[in-house]
Amino acid sequence: MSQHLLGQLRDELDVLDAKHLIRRRRTVETPSAPALRVDGRDLLAFCSNDYLGLAAHPAIIAALQEGASLYGVGSGASHLISGHSRAHAVLEERLAEFMSPYMEHARALYFCTGYMANLAVITALAGKDAAVFSEALNHASLIDGVRLSRAAVKVFPHRDYAALEQMLQESNANTKVVVTDSVFSMDGNIADLPALLALCERHDAWLMVDDAHGFGVLGTNGRGVLEHFNLRSPNLVYMGTLGKAAGVGGAFVAAHTTVIEWLVQKARPYIYTTAAPPALAHALLTSLDIISGAEGQQRRNNLQQLIASFRQGLRLPSWELMPSDTAIQPVVIGDNAVMLQVAANLLEQGIWVGAIRPPTVPAGSARLRITLSASHTREQVTQLVHALNELEAASNEAAKDEATSNGLAEAP
Asked: Which of 218, 349, 354, 361 yields a CA-CA distance of 20 to 30 A from 22?
């Protein structure tokens, strides 16, 4: 390989490193849980999306083992060849039934990942003659789906529905698709879905909702943001992730049966890929049982109590705890280097949190992305709160000392 080409990559990596933007992987040696063994160390983790604590649930593990015994390990082919297992079919039927209170003539389609599901929906619904209206803070998978669709694209500011309405009014596209996250993954706030749906119905547009961080968590029965707002409309196309609150893997799209049939016929990320292992679909049946039952309700209630305890305990005059009622609780620090140092200090105390920097978030808004799980204890959350309060206070004192030494402030 050309040393010139390798040199170009090394130079670019050096630039990222200088900006404190290099990402590094850690190796987890134990099942997903608040207490983890990571690179040989015992850590308390607040960075998983396992919101209900189902990823290592004994009943789901047993169901996965049973699924492997029944269906083997791999699917062997794409869904439209020979890879569509009875396990996939039963799961899709259950998901459609589960979402039917908020869908007319509901049908569901199972995908290997949420990323693939988003690419599939947007590219199938919005061709080059369509117009897509995308929320400014949408997930990368939605953004990539919009790019691949070849549709005309308008990006509306975060939760600015007046701007969106003007864009819809000015568009003469025959097909209009509004695309949004439900719970924004880096901010933790929730889109105003009732306002968005009203606009879509008024302007005869599809509303494609990525509920990756809402399915299983929001709503009395865990049916996500549609249950949270009690929404029902044929204009809705709903994507729910099954590797977060559901604890296993993959994703599904639920919509009117005509929409799902269109995806089966036209969605390239569905047609041209090997189907997910049937054992995963079999295990997800047990996940749905837990999510929709009394145990799921108890886990959601516990999660809400932990969120309230976390927010009430923090005292951060110079950092910003973003407004969020969800399991995602971001603390914005601002500077990349300062935020990384705070994350490193937490790690020294045995606490692992997500360290988020640009381009995932805007420049100057580097943050700790803290995620809570129903499996955390009140004591573990209190430990995190105390550590954050102490680090913020120490950071303020260090900033004052630096300002004093530079002659920017008088010494007390």
From this structure: 349
